[in-house]
Amino acid sequence: MFRDAALVAGKDLRIELRSRVAINQVLPLAVLLLVLFAFALDPDTGLLVRATPGLFWIATVLCGLLAVQRAFAVETADGVTDGLRLSALDTGGLFLGKAAAVALQLIVLQALLLAGVVVLYDAAPSGWLMLVVTCGTATAGIAAAGTLFGVLAAGVRVRETLLPLLLLPVLAPVLLAATRAFEAAFEGRSSEGWPWVGLLAAFALVYIVAGLFGFGALLEES
Q1: Exposure winner among 29, 103, 109, 196, fewest CB in 10 A?
Q2: How do residues 104-114 score in pLDDT, each as one tens digit?
Q3: How far is Cα 26 from Cα 10, in angstroms, rounded to an integer?
Q4: 176 to each of 92, 118, 194, how far by Cα in Å?
């Protein structure tokens, strides 16, 4: 399973590196969102700094949605999905590989976003361990849920609009918990953020297990 996951993840990442869709579209969108938020909120009032955690995760979730859509748009072209169904690859490995590729793209995106909020918003996080753990657990949950709902919407003609309707409500707990954990990290109250990190870990675990057992059936129906 893990060998198949590595093959699928490597394939998806090579496609993204060659197509440069993530570099030319997703990353500029994330930076543009940060700039627009900076214009929308008056930095002189301190509101921008207080809203930094929420703005960071809104940008992450929206860009993660684009990454998931891109991952399955590639599979639906030229009958690739049929090839995956007919292959001898483990369905759990397919799920883990797709999710790992999305997660790695999100980690790179979050590193750039974090640098952006420090520079543009003059935010000074103090709990770096909390930030790193929060990003890891939240990204795992976003990637796992996104991969599961992505394959569910892949076979539908209106998947570009259906996927956000399915996925965004599901990711609401991730958005809430990650924002609260980041607030604790930025304000130097890391002890208050660990319960939220635990919620993120539970969310990720639920969707990873669901994906391992349900991805194959959803792939057959997509």
Answers
A1: 29
A2: 989 988 998 88
A3: 19
A4: 29, 21, 13
